[in-house]
UniProtKB/TrEMBL annotation:
Pfam families: RsgA_GTPase. One of its GO terms (biological process) is ribosomal small subunit biogenesis. Its main location: cytoplasm. Residues 96-256 form the EngC GTPase domain. It comes from the Bacteria. This is Small ribosomal subunit biogenesis GTPase RsgA. Its EC number is 3.6.1.-. Monomer. Associates with 30S ribosomal subunit, binds 16S rRNA. Belongs to the TRAFAC class YlqF/YawG GTPase family. RsgA subfamily.
Length: 329
């Protein structure tokens, strides 16, 4: 028996594609289909799915020629991006061991939802991940509307990187490619925002299924049904003629409703960047609810314009969603 490590590319029904650390005769990593050796593996059973693309695992094979193997254990994660799966009533791992979590949105088609992005930013802050906000379909006329531009400016002023991209026209693709070269990133967002289209245009040898929006509801169809890690060969025309530039991308299924995981309503302010430095400095200290209390530093910051009304309202509404369990679609 031979033991070695590998990276989870994708999986379902407890069978996972593992990119193993050993190589074939051409120097390429060997991909094996692996299942769990024992149901008593030391995995966190709280999760809707036990492993995510990007996870590192230890496996066992009978000999180096085997095309299948058995998963022995999980190598400790450096990080993971997680959401609460409402249907499964459990936390769902979307991706692991990331350099960047790329939050994909659009000015329209589907409708722009800034609080959806704020929820994702909160989860990323909680998980100590580096988020990138990627605005796809920036060629649409709605991208130039003042309210939309104001929202992007708010995030940028908070220190978040915002990329303005059009998979259709090519705008911004060079900046995106430079950012992700040599890194492991995950694309997360609503159905229909164009995650698969972005992968297709970054690597024109990669063809992922893309879908059209539902005419009735203006929402995308789920064309990616499970998360998959891909190593893409970046199009030389995008990276200035550089040859053999690669990036690792996890394309995740579209999410219509992003529900926070493991974050209490009273702790939410800790994960709003502009709120966090003021926590505990109110007249009533950490007991302040930041609603109407005298001496509340957060309310004073809103009044002074240090915290924008848009973000304060977003915080209020997300806090209410946590408290009531009623999350917007």
């Amino acid at each position: 028996m031979v033991q070695l490590e590998g990276t989870v590319l994708s999986g379902s029904n407890n069978v996972f594609e593992i990119e193993c650390d050993d190589k074939d005769d051409d120097g390429n990593s060997i991909i094996r289909n692996c299942s769990f050796k024992s149901k008593r593996l030391k995995l966190d059973t709280r999760y809707y799915n036990p492993l995510a693309p990007g996870d590192r695992v230890q496996i066992e094979i009978e000999d180096s020629q085997d095309e299948k193997g058995q998963i022995l254990s999980l190598v400790p994660r450096s990080n993971a991006f997680i959401r609460w799966n409402v249907k499964g009533r459990a936390p769902q791992l979307l991706a692991a061991n990331l350099d960047y979590i790329i939050l994909v949105t659009t000015p329209a088609e589907p409708e722009f939802r800034p609080r959806f992005i704020d929820r994702e930013l909160v989860q990323a802050e909680y998980q100590n991940l580096t988020p990138i906000i990627l605005v796809n379909k920036y060629d649409l006329p709605e991208a130039q509307e003042p309210d939309f531009q104001n929202r992007l400016s708010i995030w940028e002023e908070l220190g978040y990187k915002v990329l303005r991209i059009s998979a259709k026209s090519g705008e911004g693709l060079t900046e995106l490619a430079e950012l992700i070269t040599g890194k492991l990133s995950a694309l997360v967002g609503q159905s229909g925002v164009g995650k698969s289209s972005l992968v297709n245009v970054l690597d024109n040898t990669c063809v992922l299924k893309t879908g059209s929006l539902s005419r009735k509801y203006g929402k995308g169809s789920h064309t990616t049904t499970k998360g998959t890690l891909m190593h893409i060969h970046l199009n030389e025309s995008i990276v200035g003629g550089v040859q053999n530039a690669y990036a690792s991308i996890i394309d995740t299924p579209g999410v219509r409703r992003f529900v926070l995981n493991d974050i209490a309503a009273d702790d939410l302010a800790l994960y709003f960047r502009e709120f966090e430095p003021l926590i505990g400095k109110c007249k009533f200290g950490t007991n302040c609810k930041h609603d109407s209390e005298p001496g509340c530093k957060i309310l004073e910051a809103v009044e002074a314009g240090v915290i924008t009304e848009e973000r304060f309202e977003s915080w209020q509404r997300i806090r209410e969603e946590i408290q009531t369990g009623n999350w917007d679609d």
